[in-house]
Amino acid sequence: MFLLKKWLGSLLLPLPLLLTLSLIGVIFIMLRRHRRGLVLLLFALLSLTLLSTRPVANALLHPLESRYPPYRAPVDREPPDDIIVLGAAVAADPALPLVSQLSQAGLARIAEGVRLAHLYPRARLILTGYSGGEAMTSAELYGEVAQVLGIAPERLLRLPEPKDTAEEARLVRPLIAGRRAILVTSASHMPRSMALFEAEGVYPVAAPTGHLAKETQAGLPLYSYLPQARYLWRSEQAWHEYLGRAWLRLRDAF
């Protein structure tokens, strides 16, 4: 079931989906259904172009990333017992530095987790995430990075089994039940993560990180609005989250 979800999710991302539509358009043209084929080709090309621009990518990400504000240490609240850092993709190559083996999302997540661990020296650091076919799991790499950055090993609890956020929420739930916890994950991923944890009956405080929809106060040159691969990647991150939320609604409906 997990592999099926991953496969379908990958097919429904903008680039493979729109390339598939383009191919279907070409086939229609070859079959002399020119109008239908041209419509598909133009739609796919225009969509791909728009998704590769900064305004569209940021417009897709902003509703997700602005749902929860950045974490600020409250002066009127008891310190947390646990800090949970959700897993992200890894490339466990021992020839690389530790931080280079983490994805951009993973690096942002563990950096925020370590920051909070230093802020709350009595809190336990719960690290999650499986290997995805790599030699080390996300949880194990997180633990190595955390220790290098000054976190004592006895404060670390690694959970290398969960393959997705739903499994992470299920496995973490009994560990934080009745305890104060902070949840660290990417800002765009936070709404879906909080929904899954709350569905398990636990209510951690959100600490989003790794924001992508960044705007500058200074004016941007016109060329920054041209289509670029990095903006398409940002659109894909948002698209992935919207697909995930749609899957949750569909699952809950049945």
Automatic annotation (TrEMBL):
Describe the location of the DUF218 domain by residue ranges: 83-244
Show the CDD domains listed in the entry: YdcF-like (cd06259)
Record-linked InterPro entries? Cell_Envelope_Assoc, DUF218
Bilayer-crossing residues are: 12-31, 38-57
Task: Work out whether the entry's keyword set contains Transmembrane.
Answer: yes
UniProt entry keywords in alphabetical sequence = Membrane, Transmembrane, Transmembrane helix
Source species, domain of life: Bacteria
- What this protein is called in its record is Envelope biogenesis factor ElyC
